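Order emerges. For instance:

***
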Amino acid sequence: MSPPASQAVFVLGGARSGKSRFAESLVSDTGLERHYVATGQAWDDEMRERIAKHRADRGDLWQTHEEPIELVEQLAAIDAEGRAVLVDCLTLWVTNLMMAERDMAAEFAALTAFLPTARSRLVLVSNEVGLGIVPENRMAREFRDHAGRLHQMVAAASAEVYFIAAGLPLKMKG
């Protein structure tokens, strides 16, 4: 059985591929009220600086919501017609879920079940981590496997899927 129809857009790519910039342009181009759901956590000064730079680069036209774990609940809380919501990024969310020892299958199922019910235009960003070598340690392999499963589920539940490389979007679905 295929998932219900969704208006979600899924944007994948490697680190520094241009995926976030592309996703931000997709949201900006809608003309809708802009919301940004950040899943990253500032564990050190370098990450705090990155977060501050990203927030400054986006400017005042975005409402930022920081939610490292309860992503579906945050999306439900801000979901409304006339809004576009950017989630950046799902791989940081996977890391946070792993560190919190959450039920990955249940969390992923909840997210993909939410997508077709959303009234907002959703754009979800994630890092493609399955194109490189097999990680040398168990946790890294589990992370890669969780991310790969989540990506398949989100791609199946999304109306459009893009892969970004060297700043160039390749439309894979929709």
About this structure: The longest helix spans residues 138-157. The mean pLDDT is 93. DSSP finds six helices and seven strands in the chain.
